[in-house]
Specification:
The complex is a heterodimer of chains A (218) and B (220). The longest helix of chain A has 38 residues. Helices cover 82% and strands 0% of the residues of chain A. Chain A is flat, with a radius of gyration of 21 Å. Chain A is mainly alpha-helical. In chain A, helix 1 crosses helix 4. Chain A has a domain of 147 residues: MetI-like fold (Orthogonal Bundle), CATH 1.10.3720.10. Chain B is globular, with a radius of gyration of 21 Å. The mean pLDDT of chain B is 91. Classes of the chains: A mainly alpha (218), B mainly alpha (220). Chains A and B meet through helix 3, helix 6, helix 7 and helix 8 of A and helix 3, helix 4, helix 7 and helix 9 of B.
Amino acid sequence: MLDTALSLNDLRFLMLGAGWTLLITAISVTAGTLLGVLFGVARAQTPVWVSLPIGFVLDIFRSVPLLIQLVLFNSFIPILGLRATPFSVSCLVLALYTSAYCSEIVRGGVAAVPQTTRRAARSLGMTWGQDMVEIVFPLALRVMFPSWIGLTLGVMKDTALVAWIGVIELLKSSQILITRMPSEPLFILGIAGLIYFLISFPISRLGARLERKWREND
Amino acid sequence: MNYTFHWRPAFRALPEMLAGSLVTLQIAVLSMVIGIAIAVLLAVMTGSKSRWLRGIAGTWIEVARNTPALFQIYIAYFGLGQIGIHLDSYLALLAGITFNNAGYLAETFRGGLRAVPQTQVRAARSLGFGPIAAFRLIVLPQLFRAVFHPMTNQMVWAILMTSLGVVVGVNTDLTGVTQELNVRTFRTFEYFAIAAVLYYLIAKVVTLGARLIAWRLFRY
Protein backbone atom coordinates (compact mmCIF):
# COMPACT_ATOMS: atom_id res chain seq x y z
CA MET A 1 0.00 0.00 0.00
CA LEU A 2 2.79 2.40 0.89
CA ASP A 3 4.28 2.12 -2.58
CA THR A 4 5.90 5.49 -2.93
CA ALA A 5 8.65 7.04 -4.99
CA LEU A 6 9.53 9.24 -2.03
CA SER A 7 13.08 8.49 -0.91
CA LEU A 8 14.86 9.16 2.34
CA ASN A 9 16.65 12.01 0.60
CA ASP A 10 13.34 13.65 -0.26
CA LEU A 11 12.27 13.36 3.34
CA ARG A 12 15.50 15.04 4.36
CA PHE A 13 14.68 17.79 1.86
CA LEU A 14 11.30 18.33 3.53
CA MET A 15 12.96 18.44 6.95
CA LEU A 16 15.36 21.07 5.69
CA GLY A 17 12.33 23.11 4.60
CA ALA A 18 10.81 22.66 8.03
CA GLY A 19 14.08 23.94 9.50
CA TRP A 20 13.80 27.14 7.45
CA THR A 21 10.19 27.54 8.54
CA LEU A 22 11.23 27.29 12.19
CA LEU A 23 14.24 29.59 11.74
CA ILE A 24 12.17 32.33 10.08
CA THR A 25 9.51 31.95 12.76
CA ALA A 26 12.07 32.19 15.57
CA ILE A 27 13.77 35.29 14.18
CA SER A 28 10.62 37.17 13.27
CA VAL A 29 8.74 36.32 16.47
CA THR A 30 11.70 37.35 18.65
CA ALA A 31 12.20 40.66 16.84
CA GLY A 32 8.47 41.21 16.46
CA THR A 33 7.80 40.64 20.14
CA LEU A 34 10.49 43.10 21.22
CA LEU A 35 9.12 45.72 18.83
CA GLY A 36 5.56 44.83 19.78
CA VAL A 37 6.22 45.37 23.51
CA LEU A 38 7.72 48.75 22.68
CA PHE A 39 4.79 49.78 20.48
CA GLY A 40 2.22 48.29 22.84
CA VAL A 41 3.53 50.16 25.89
CA ALA A 42 3.78 53.29 23.78
CA ARG A 43 0.16 52.89 22.68
CA ALA A 44 -1.02 52.34 26.24
CA GLN A 45 1.08 54.98 27.98
CA THR A 46 1.68 57.93 25.64
CA PRO A 47 -0.63 60.88 24.88
CA VAL A 48 -3.07 60.55 22.01
CA TRP A 49 -1.00 62.47 19.49
CA VAL A 50 1.75 59.84 19.83
CA SER A 51 -0.31 56.69 20.27
CA LEU A 52 -2.83 57.38 17.52
CA PRO A 53 -0.31 57.59 14.63
CA ILE A 54 1.50 54.47 15.92
CA GLY A 55 -1.83 52.66 16.08
CA PHE A 56 -2.74 53.77 12.58
CA VAL A 57 0.52 52.53 11.03
CA LEU A 58 0.37 49.20 12.87
CA ASP A 59 -3.24 48.75 11.78
CA ILE A 60 -2.10 48.85 8.16
CA PHE A 61 0.02 45.74 8.74
CA ARG A 62 -3.10 43.97 9.99
CA SER A 63 -5.39 45.12 7.17
CA VAL A 64 -3.22 44.37 4.13
CA PRO A 65 -2.60 40.75 3.07
CA LEU A 66 0.80 39.47 4.13
CA LEU A 67 1.50 38.35 0.57
CA ILE A 68 1.12 41.94 -0.66
CA GLN A 69 3.35 43.21 2.15
CA LEU A 70 6.05 40.71 1.18
CA VAL A 71 5.93 41.70 -2.50
CA LEU A 72 5.91 45.42 -1.64
CA PHE A 73 8.95 45.24 0.64
CA ASN A 74 10.74 42.91 -1.75
CA SER A 75 10.33 45.40 -4.58
CA PHE A 76 10.89 48.53 -2.48
CA ILE A 77 14.27 47.59 -1.02
CA PRO A 78 16.02 47.53 -4.43
CA ILE A 79 14.33 50.87 -5.22
CA LEU A 80 16.10 52.31 -2.18
CA GLY A 81 19.34 51.03 -3.68
CA LEU A 82 19.81 48.41 -1.00
CA ARG A 83 20.28 44.72 -1.46
CA ALA A 84 18.63 42.06 0.66
CA THR A 85 18.12 38.33 0.31
CA PRO A 86 14.53 37.03 0.18
CA PHE A 87 15.27 35.45 3.54
CA SER A 88 16.04 38.75 5.26
CA VAL A 89 13.11 40.49 3.56
CA SER A 90 10.84 37.71 4.86
CA CYS A 91 12.17 38.08 8.38
CA LEU A 92 11.78 41.87 8.26
CA VAL A 93 8.20 41.79 6.99
CA LEU A 94 7.13 39.01 9.34
CA ALA A 95 8.77 40.82 12.29
CA LEU A 96 6.81 44.00 11.54
CA TYR A 97 3.66 41.95 10.98
CA THR A 98 4.20 40.19 14.33
CA SER A 99 4.88 43.49 16.11
CA ALA A 100 1.55 44.88 14.85
CA TYR A 101 -0.39 42.02 16.44
CA CYS A 102 1.86 41.84 19.50
CA SER A 103 1.35 45.54 20.25
CA GLU A 104 -2.41 44.91 20.47
CA ILE A 105 -1.81 42.03 22.90
CA VAL A 106 0.53 44.14 25.04
CA ARG A 107 -1.87 47.08 25.03
CA GLY A 108 -4.67 44.79 26.18
CA GLY A 109 -2.42 43.27 28.86
CA VAL A 110 -1.39 46.66 30.24
CA ALA A 111 -5.01 47.85 30.21
CA ALA A 112 -6.04 44.73 32.15
CA VAL A 113 -3.94 45.79 35.16
CA PRO A 114 -6.24 47.78 37.48
CA GLN A 115 -5.40 51.48 37.69
CA THR A 116 -5.72 51.31 41.49
CA THR A 117 -2.96 48.69 41.72
CA ARG A 118 -0.65 50.89 39.71
CA ARG A 119 -1.50 53.99 41.70
CA ALA A 120 -0.77 52.05 44.86
CA ALA A 121 2.63 51.12 43.45
CA ARG A 122 3.42 54.73 42.61
CA SER A 123 2.24 55.89 46.05
CA LEU A 124 4.64 53.42 47.64
CA GLY A 125 7.41 55.35 45.95
CA MET A 126 7.99 53.15 42.91
CA THR A 127 9.13 54.93 39.77
CA TRP A 128 7.23 54.50 36.48
CA GLY A 129 9.86 51.98 35.39
CA GLN A 130 9.61 49.98 38.59
CA ASP A 131 5.83 50.02 38.35
CA MET A 132 6.08 48.69 34.78
CA VAL A 133 8.62 45.96 35.53
CA GLU A 134 7.55 44.84 39.02
CA ILE A 135 3.77 45.34 38.95
CA VAL A 136 2.36 45.65 35.43
CA PHE A 137 4.54 43.09 33.70
CA PRO A 138 3.86 40.08 35.99
CA LEU A 139 0.13 40.81 36.12
CA ALA A 140 -0.20 41.49 32.39
CA LEU A 141 1.83 38.42 31.49
CA ARG A 142 -0.96 36.01 32.38
CA VAL A 143 -3.37 37.90 30.15
CA MET A 144 -0.88 38.20 27.30
CA PHE A 145 0.81 34.81 27.26
CA PRO A 146 -2.01 32.66 25.78
CA SER A 147 -2.66 35.19 23.00
CA TRP A 148 1.06 35.45 22.38
CA ILE A 149 1.27 31.68 21.87
CA GLY A 150 -1.59 31.96 19.40
CA LEU A 151 0.25 34.74 17.60
CA THR A 152 3.49 32.74 17.43
CA LEU A 153 1.69 29.76 15.91
CA GLY A 154 -0.12 32.08 13.49
CA VAL A 155 3.20 33.50 12.33
CA MET A 156 4.61 29.98 12.00
CA LYS A 157 1.75 29.11 9.65
CA ASP A 158 2.05 32.42 7.80
CA THR A 159 5.70 31.69 6.96
CA ALA A 160 4.24 29.47 4.23
CA LEU A 161 3.72 32.67 2.20
CA VAL A 162 7.40 33.63 1.99
CA ALA A 163 7.76 31.02 -0.75
CA TRP A 164 6.21 33.61 -3.08
CA ILE A 165 9.34 35.79 -2.92
CA GLY A 166 11.66 32.82 -3.25
CA VAL A 167 12.41 31.28 0.14
CA ILE A 168 12.21 27.49 0.07
CA GLU A 169 10.49 26.63 3.32
CA LEU A 170 8.41 23.59 4.24
CA LEU A 171 5.39 24.08 1.97
CA LYS A 172 7.53 25.14 -1.00
CA SER A 173 9.74 22.06 -0.54
CA SER A 174 6.68 19.85 -0.69
CA GLN A 175 5.55 21.64 -3.84
CA ILE A 176 8.95 21.06 -5.45
CA LEU A 177 8.67 17.35 -4.63
CA ILE A 178 5.17 17.28 -6.13
CA THR A 179 6.46 18.79 -9.36
CA ARG A 180 9.00 15.96 -9.49
CA MET A 181 6.54 13.24 -8.51
CA PRO A 182 3.18 14.43 -9.83
CA SER A 183 1.47 11.11 -9.14
CA GLU A 184 1.29 11.42 -5.36
CA PRO A 185 0.50 14.99 -4.30
CA LEU A 186 -1.75 13.95 -1.42
CA PHE A 187 0.93 11.83 0.23
CA ILE A 188 3.65 14.50 -0.02
CA LEU A 189 1.34 17.32 1.08
CA GLY A 190 0.11 15.06 3.86
CA ILE A 191 3.64 14.77 5.26
CA ALA A 192 4.12 18.55 5.08
CA GLY A 193 0.76 19.09 6.76
CA LEU A 194 1.63 16.56 9.44
CA ILE A 195 4.86 18.42 10.21
CA TYR A 196 2.96 21.73 10.58
CA PHE A 197 0.38 19.98 12.72
CA LEU A 198 2.97 18.33 14.96
CA ILE A 199 4.62 21.69 15.60
CA SER A 200 1.41 23.64 16.11
CA PHE A 201 -1.02 21.30 17.87
CA PRO A 202 0.92 20.51 21.09
CA ILE A 203 1.84 24.17 21.61
CA SER A 204 -1.72 25.37 21.04
CA ARG A 205 -2.99 22.77 23.52
CA LEU A 206 -0.42 23.93 26.05
CA GLY A 207 -1.57 27.52 25.54
CA ALA A 208 -5.22 26.59 26.03
CA ARG A 209 -4.36 24.67 29.19
CA LEU A 210 -2.38 27.54 30.65
CA GLU A 211 -5.22 29.93 29.89
CA ARG A 212 -7.72 27.74 31.72
CA LYS A 213 -5.39 27.16 34.66
CA TRP A 214 -4.60 30.83 35.10
CA ARG A 215 -8.24 31.79 34.89
CA GLU A 216 -9.08 29.39 37.72
CA ASN A 217 -6.63 31.14 40.02
CA ASP A 218 -8.23 34.53 39.54
CA MET B 1 17.89 56.22 -5.56
CA ASN B 2 17.71 56.20 -9.34
CA TYR B 3 14.31 54.69 -9.80
CA THR B 4 11.50 56.66 -11.38
CA PHE B 5 8.04 55.84 -10.21
CA HIS B 6 5.44 55.46 -12.94
CA TRP B 7 2.15 56.05 -11.21
CA ARG B 8 0.14 57.17 -14.24
CA PRO B 9 -0.11 53.79 -16.03
CA ALA B 10 -0.73 52.18 -12.67
CA PHE B 11 -3.69 54.46 -11.98
CA ARG B 12 -5.00 53.77 -15.47
CA ALA B 13 -5.37 50.12 -14.41
CA LEU B 14 -7.60 51.13 -11.51
CA PRO B 15 -10.89 50.00 -13.12
CA GLU B 16 -9.43 46.52 -13.69
CA MET B 17 -8.25 46.40 -10.09
CA LEU B 18 -11.62 47.56 -8.78
CA ALA B 19 -13.28 44.75 -10.75
CA GLY B 20 -10.76 42.43 -9.09
CA SER B 21 -11.75 43.81 -5.70
CA LEU B 22 -15.32 42.78 -6.38
CA VAL B 23 -14.20 39.22 -7.12
CA THR B 24 -12.18 39.28 -3.88
CA LEU B 25 -15.26 40.35 -1.94
CA GLN B 26 -17.37 37.74 -3.71
CA ILE B 27 -14.98 34.91 -2.75
CA ALA B 28 -14.77 36.17 0.82
CA VAL B 29 -18.55 36.46 1.21
CA LEU B 30 -19.20 33.03 -0.34
CA SER B 31 -16.56 31.40 1.84
CA MET B 32 -18.07 33.06 4.92
CA VAL B 33 -21.67 32.07 4.15
CA ILE B 34 -20.80 28.43 3.45
CA GLY B 35 -18.25 28.47 6.27
CA ILE B 36 -20.81 29.70 8.82
CA ALA B 37 -23.29 26.99 7.80
CA ILE B 38 -20.66 24.27 8.18
CA ALA B 39 -19.35 25.81 11.41
CA VAL B 40 -22.76 25.71 13.10
CA LEU B 41 -23.00 22.07 12.11
CA LEU B 42 -19.49 21.33 13.41
CA ALA B 43 -20.16 23.15 16.68
CA VAL B 44 -23.31 21.11 17.26
CA MET B 45 -21.43 17.94 16.28
CA THR B 46 -18.70 18.53 18.90
CA GLY B 47 -21.41 18.30 21.56
CA SER B 48 -23.00 15.18 20.09
CA LYS B 49 -23.18 11.79 21.80
CA SER B 50 -21.83 9.91 18.79
CA ARG B 51 -18.07 9.40 18.93
CA TRP B 52 -17.91 9.41 15.13
CA LEU B 53 -19.55 12.82 14.75
CA ARG B 54 -17.37 14.24 17.52
CA GLY B 55 -14.27 12.77 15.86
CA ILE B 56 -15.05 14.21 12.44
CA ALA B 57 -15.81 17.67 13.82
CA GLY B 58 -12.75 17.62 16.09
CA THR B 59 -10.43 16.58 13.26
CA TRP B 60 -11.80 19.26 10.92
CA ILE B 61 -11.39 21.98 13.55
CA GLU B 62 -7.87 20.96 14.59
CA VAL B 63 -6.57 20.52 11.04
CA ALA B 64 -8.06 23.87 9.98
CA ARG B 65 -6.53 25.65 12.94
CA ASN B 66 -3.12 23.97 13.02
CA THR B 67 -2.02 24.03 9.39
CA PRO B 68 -1.41 27.04 7.11
CA ALA B 69 -4.33 28.30 5.01
CA LEU B 70 -2.10 28.02 1.96
CA PHE B 71 -1.58 24.35 2.75
CA GLN B 72 -5.35 23.86 2.82
CA ILE B 73 -5.66 25.55 -0.58
CA TYR B 74 -2.84 23.34 -1.92
CA ILE B 75 -4.70 20.24 -0.73
CA ALA B 76 -7.79 21.40 -2.60
CA TYR B 77 -5.81 22.28 -5.71
CA PHE B 78 -3.06 19.61 -5.99
CA GLY B 79 -4.21 16.97 -3.54
CA LEU B 80 -7.85 16.35 -4.39
CA GLY B 81 -6.93 15.66 -8.02
CA GLN B 82 -5.35 12.41 -6.91
CA ILE B 83 -8.70 11.07 -5.74
CA GLY B 84 -10.48 12.22 -8.86
CA ILE B 85 -11.82 15.61 -7.73
CA HIS B 86 -10.42 18.24 -10.07
CA LEU B 87 -11.08 21.80 -8.93
CA ASP B 88 -10.04 24.83 -10.94
CA SER B 89 -8.02 27.44 -9.10
CA TYR B 90 -11.04 29.60 -8.20
CA LEU B 91 -12.92 26.68 -6.65
CA ALA B 92 -9.78 25.41 -4.93
CA LEU B 93 -9.27 28.83 -3.34
CA LEU B 94 -12.91 28.98 -2.30
CA ALA B 95 -12.79 25.45 -0.87
CA GLY B 96 -9.56 26.13 1.02
CA ILE B 97 -10.79 29.35 2.62
CA THR B 98 -14.20 27.85 3.40
CA PHE B 99 -12.52 24.90 5.13
CA ASN B 100 -10.39 27.31 7.14
CA ASN B 101 -13.29 29.62 8.04
CA ALA B 102 -15.46 26.70 9.13
CA GLY B 103 -12.74 25.40 11.47
CA TYR B 104 -12.10 28.73 13.16
CA LEU B 105 -15.78 29.72 13.33
CA ALA B 106 -16.78 26.32 14.77
CA GLU B 107 -14.47 27.01 17.71
CA THR B 108 -16.02 30.47 18.09
CA PHE B 109 -19.55 29.06 17.94
CA ARG B 110 -18.70 26.39 20.48
CA GLY B 111 -17.75 29.13 22.92
CA GLY B 112 -20.90 31.03 21.97
CA LEU B 113 -23.11 28.01 22.54
CA ARG B 114 -21.68 27.65 26.02
CA ALA B 115 -22.72 31.25 26.70
CA VAL B 116 -26.39 30.32 26.21
CA PRO B 117 -27.61 28.63 29.42
CA GLN B 118 -29.00 25.10 29.00
CA THR B 119 -31.85 26.07 31.35
CA GLN B 120 -33.26 28.33 28.63
CA VAL B 121 -33.50 25.42 26.22
CA ARG B 122 -35.24 23.37 28.90
CA ALA B 123 -37.61 26.25 29.60
CA ALA B 124 -38.40 26.54 25.88
CA ARG B 125 -38.99 22.79 25.59
CA SER B 126 -41.35 22.77 28.55
CA LEU B 127 -43.25 25.67 26.96
CA GLY B 128 -43.91 23.35 24.02
CA PHE B 129 -41.10 24.32 21.58
CA GLY B 130 -39.76 21.46 19.50
CA PRO B 131 -35.98 20.82 19.65
CA ILE B 132 -35.42 22.60 16.32
CA ALA B 133 -37.70 25.51 17.13
CA ALA B 134 -35.96 25.94 20.49
CA PHE B 135 -32.57 26.03 18.78
CA ARG B 136 -33.71 28.37 16.02
CA LEU B 137 -35.76 30.80 18.11
CA ILE B 138 -34.01 30.75 21.48
CA VAL B 139 -30.39 29.64 21.08
CA LEU B 140 -29.51 30.97 17.64
CA PRO B 141 -30.34 34.69 18.22
CA GLN B 142 -28.29 34.77 21.41
CA LEU B 143 -25.49 32.79 19.81
CA PHE B 144 -25.43 35.24 16.91
CA ARG B 145 -25.09 38.15 19.25
CA ALA B 146 -22.22 36.55 21.17
CA VAL B 147 -20.23 35.61 18.06
CA PHE B 148 -20.91 38.65 15.89
CA HIS B 149 -17.65 40.41 16.70
CA PRO B 150 -15.37 37.36 16.16
CA MET B 151 -17.30 36.70 12.95
CA THR B 152 -16.44 40.18 11.70
CA ASN B 153 -12.78 39.48 12.39
CA GLN B 154 -13.02 36.22 10.49
CA MET B 155 -14.56 38.07 7.55
CA VAL B 156 -11.55 40.41 7.41
CA TRP B 157 -9.31 37.34 7.64
CA ALA B 158 -11.22 35.77 4.76
CA ILE B 159 -10.64 38.87 2.63
CA LEU B 160 -6.93 38.80 3.38
CA MET B 161 -6.78 35.05 2.69
CA THR B 162 -8.26 35.44 -0.80
CA SER B 163 -4.92 36.96 -1.80
CA LEU B 164 -3.42 33.45 -1.56
CA GLY B 165 -5.33 32.44 -4.68
CA VAL B 166 -2.61 33.90 -6.88
CA VAL B 167 -0.27 31.11 -5.72
CA VAL B 168 -2.51 28.48 -7.33
CA GLY B 169 -3.18 30.64 -10.39
CA VAL B 170 -6.35 32.64 -9.66
CA ASN B 171 -6.10 35.70 -11.90
CA THR B 172 -9.45 37.41 -11.43
CA ASP B 173 -9.28 38.56 -7.81
CA LEU B 174 -7.46 41.74 -6.71
CA THR B 175 -4.08 40.07 -6.16
CA GLY B 176 -4.46 38.00 -9.33
CA VAL B 177 -5.24 41.06 -11.45
CA THR B 178 -2.36 42.95 -9.84
CA GLN B 179 0.03 40.10 -10.55
CA GLU B 180 -1.07 39.97 -14.22
CA LEU B 181 -0.42 43.71 -14.55
CA ASN B 182 2.91 43.23 -12.83
CA VAL B 183 3.99 40.46 -15.19
CA ARG B 184 3.05 42.63 -18.17
CA THR B 185 4.82 45.81 -17.03
CA PHE B 186 7.27 44.90 -14.23
CA ARG B 187 6.06 47.93 -12.26
CA THR B 188 5.79 45.73 -9.18
CA PHE B 189 5.90 48.40 -6.51
CA GLU B 190 3.36 50.76 -8.05
CA TYR B 191 0.72 48.12 -8.74
CA PHE B 192 1.09 46.32 -5.44
CA ALA B 193 1.02 49.61 -3.53
CA ILE B 194 -2.36 50.40 -5.10
CA ALA B 195 -3.52 46.87 -4.31
CA ALA B 196 -2.45 47.36 -0.69
CA VAL B 197 -4.49 50.57 -0.44
CA LEU B 198 -7.51 48.84 -1.97
CA TYR B 199 -7.24 45.91 0.46
CA TYR B 200 -6.97 48.37 3.34
CA LEU B 201 -10.08 50.21 2.17
CA ILE B 202 -12.06 46.98 1.70
CA ALA B 203 -11.09 45.80 5.19
CA LYS B 204 -12.05 49.16 6.72
CA VAL B 205 -15.38 49.34 4.87
CA VAL B 206 -16.28 45.81 6.01
CA THR B 207 -15.30 46.55 9.63
CA LEU B 208 -17.24 49.81 9.62
CA GLY B 209 -20.26 48.18 7.99
CA ALA B 210 -20.24 45.42 10.57
CA ARG B 211 -20.07 47.98 13.36
CA LEU B 212 -23.10 49.77 11.90
CA ILE B 213 -25.03 46.50 11.63
CA ALA B 214 -24.12 45.57 15.20
CA TRP B 215 -25.23 48.99 16.42
CA ARG B 216 -28.52 48.59 14.57
CA LEU B 217 -29.19 44.99 15.66
CA PHE B 218 -27.97 44.87 19.23
CA ARG B 219 -29.32 48.15 20.57
CA TYR B 220 -31.58 46.87 23.26
